[in-house]
């Protein structure tokens, strides 16, 4: 996606909404309070987003991960919330180096400041950057806690600009008019013979939108939908 969309997410702890640029700092303050009464152990606060070389993107996840969690568990979480479509292979790496075994626990890989590279599907690849923001001497509430994620992107229909976009044309995705509301999608199908055949895919809250056979996740499905236009 080359367009810039407003990116903001709700805090799990207080329910307030913050811009992507400020939610990490806000979440850190909440976690500092939470860990004061936590059970002894090790956990990590991480942010997941597209690599910076891809430019601005609205998608992000804020996660609190217990140190005993395996990379295979984190892999499944990322697949379930953002990626899984056809059972593709995936991998974790640090600085594009050798692949890290999925059996490793995150406390064997993560430490404050480390950036872990992740790839899903080695053909039509979705790349993610996992940054360890902070580490704590307590266990997380569960293996992976979803602290926040971006709200659905505020994508409007490129034809009428009145309704939220619900479908994307993967054939025309390199053009400015590739996203349509349901009504305008029917019109687009009359000019793009591939649209009804195979090129129509749903707008979803994921960086894998419009890629391969991806149609949405199974975690936090409320925020996996389309933007709701205010009347």
Key structural traits:
single chain; about 230 residues; alpha+beta; Structural Genomics Hypothetical 15.5 Kd Protein In mrcA-pckA Intergenic Region, Chain A; 6-stranded antiparallel β-sheet; about 20% helix; globular
Tally of DSSP helical segments: 4
The profile of the biggest β sheet is: 6 strands, antiparallel
Please report the total strand number as a whole number.
11
Supply the CATH class of the largest domain: Alpha Beta
Class from helix and strand fractions: alpha+beta
Short description:
This protein is an alpha+beta fold and 231 residues long.
Description:
The chain has helices spanning 20-34, 71-83, 182-189, 195-199; strands at 8-10, 17-19, 40-49, 60-66, 90-94, 115-120, 126-138, 144-149, 167-169, 179-180, 200-202. It folds into 2 domains: 8-149, Structural Genomics Hypothetical 15.5 Kd Protein In mrcA-pckA Intergenic Region, Chain A (Roll), CATH 3.10.290.30; 167-224, no CATH class. It has 231 residues and is of the alpha+beta class. The protein has a 6-stranded antiparallel β-sheet, sandwiched between helices.
């Amino acid at each position: 996606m080359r367009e810039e969309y407003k990116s903001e997410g709700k805090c799990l702890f207080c329910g307030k909404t913050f811009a992507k640029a400020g939610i990490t700092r806000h979440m850190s303050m909440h976690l500092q309070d939470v860990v004061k009464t936590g059970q002894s152990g090790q956990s990590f606060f991480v942010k997941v987003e597209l690599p910076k070389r891809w430019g601005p993107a609205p998608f992000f996840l804020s996660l609190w991960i217990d140190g005993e969690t395996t990379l295979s568990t984190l892999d499944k979480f990322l697949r379930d919330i953002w990626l899984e479509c056809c059972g593709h292979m995936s991998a974790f790496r640090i600085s594009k180096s050798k692949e890290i075994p999925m059996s490793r626990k995150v406390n064997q890989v993560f430490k404050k400041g480390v950036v872990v590279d992740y790839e899903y599907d080695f053909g039509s690849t979705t790349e993610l950057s996992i940054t360890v923001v902070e580490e704590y001497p307590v266990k997380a509430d569960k293996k992976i806690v979803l602290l926040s994620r971006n709200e659905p992107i505020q994508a409007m229909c490129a034809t009428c600009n009145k309704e939220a976009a619900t479908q994307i044309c993967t054939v025309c995705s390199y053009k400015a008019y590739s996203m349509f509301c349901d009504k305008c999608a029917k019109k687009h199908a009359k000019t793009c013979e591939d649209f009804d055949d195979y090129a129509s895919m749903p707008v979803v809250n994921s960086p894998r939108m419009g890629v391969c056979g991806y149609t949405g996740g199974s975690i936090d499905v409320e925020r996996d939908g389309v933007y709701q236009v205010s009347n």
